[in-house]
Amino acid sequence: MIDPAYVRTMAAYNEEMNRRIYQAAARIPDEERRAPQGAFWGSLHGTLCHLVWGDSMWLSRFADWPKPDVKITRSAAMIEDFSTLAAVREELDTAISRWAAGVDEAWLAGEITWFSGGANREVTGPRELLVTHMFNHQTHHRGQAHALITRAGEKTGDTDLFLVVPGIV
Predict the structure, then answer these.
(1) How many domains does the chain divide into?
(2) Closest of 162, 165, 141, 150 to residue 54, by C-alpha
(3) Left if phi > 0, otherwise alpha if psi is -120 to 50, otherwise beta: which for 20?
């Protein structure tokens, strides 16, 4: 399904797109970032918080990263201060890239078992599918954040994978 090069490419894409998203979001007044916009996680701030929550949860399953101390239903309010959120995002992206650099075929071929609070049961799944899910989840919610940023009149630059990650085409 996927290989280590895919994991590293997506980690690089994630890191660069988050840098662009946060730069654009920082130009939006805090009140507007927090205003309910009809997004699944309410506001731009809530969406960005949920992304940190989701990436933290997956990285806690894949590597040595602390599990979020709030449930998914509270993920949109996980970090109140935007500058703290941005700092955590940057630290998390560095950790994702470091983890991705160490992923190999053997690790991807394995399975992982964890207790899912969302499903309220123990779940087992193939790592390669779950890694793909993590990156898909990022892209999905970052797309929502991008729409809110665009609605606010800001720009992030190109978002196409082949334009964002140098050397893949």
Answers:
(1) 1
(2) 141
(3) alpha
- For the record, the structure tokens of 105 come out as 């075929």
pLDDT in tens, 53-99: 999 999 999 998 999 999 999 999 999 999 999 999 999 999 999 99
The CATH number of whichever domain residue 129 belongs to comes to 1.20.120.450
Residue 69 domain-assigned (yes or no):
yes
Residue 160 included in any domain: no
pLDDT at position 169, please? 55
The yes-or-no verdict on residue 168 having pLDDT over 70 is: no
Angle at 124 between CA 135 and CA 59, to 5 degrees: 40
Contacts with 162 (C-beta within 8 Å, 6 or more apart), sequence order: 168, 169
Of 51-60, 97-106, 114-123, 157-166, which gets the smallest average pLDDT? 157-166
Cα torsion at 10, 77, 37, 47 (round to 10°)? 0
Q: How far apart are CA 1 and CA 117, in angstroms?
A: 27
Q: Which domain holds residue 97?
A: 4-154
Map tokens 């500058």 to a residue: 83
**Size (the chain), residues:** 169
On whether residue 32 sits in a domain, the answer given is: yes
